Amino acid sequence: MSKSAITITVKLFAAYQEAFGVSELILRIPSGTPVSAVCDRLIAEHPELTQWRDVTRFGINLIFSEPDTELQDGDEVVLIPPVSGG
């Protein structure tokens, strides 16, 4: 069984949005990819985001998800870094 590619939408907020300069990305990734790997891929493209790797929470289709949750075709992923404020 070969792994096929799936398409996901990644919504970017805060530091992620600032780094990429857009509010969302459409990515093609291998089927069975965990959501944490999407975060790793974005950090690989923008190493200044490394500081957020261990504190970013993940949402899939508006539900908070564990980092090892496998993505499905059409999923909407949200990367939520901590928000600073008073």
Shape: globular
Using the 3D structure, state the CATH architecture: Roll
Largest sheet: 5 strands, mixed
Distance between the termini: 51 Å
Structural class: alpha+beta
GO molecular function, one term: nucleotide binding
Organism: Komarekiella delphini-convector SJRDD-AB1
Keywords: Nucleotide-binding
Protein name: Molybdopterin synthase sulfur carrier subunit
Describe the protein's architecture and organization.
- By secondary structure, the chain is an alpha+beta fold.
- The chain has a single domain, classed as Beta-grasp domain (Ubiquitin-like (UB roll), Roll), CATH 3.10.20.30.
- Helices cover 21% and strands 30% of the residues.
- It contains two helices and five strands; from the N terminus they run βαβαβββ.
- A five-stranded mixed sheet has the order 2-1-5-3-4.
- Strand 3 (57-60) and strand 4 (63-65) form a beta hairpin.
- The longest helix has 11 residues, at 35-45.
- It is globular and about 40 Å long.
- The N and C termini lie far apart (51 Å).
- The model has no long low-confidence stretch (mean pLDDT 93).
- Belongs to the MoaD family.
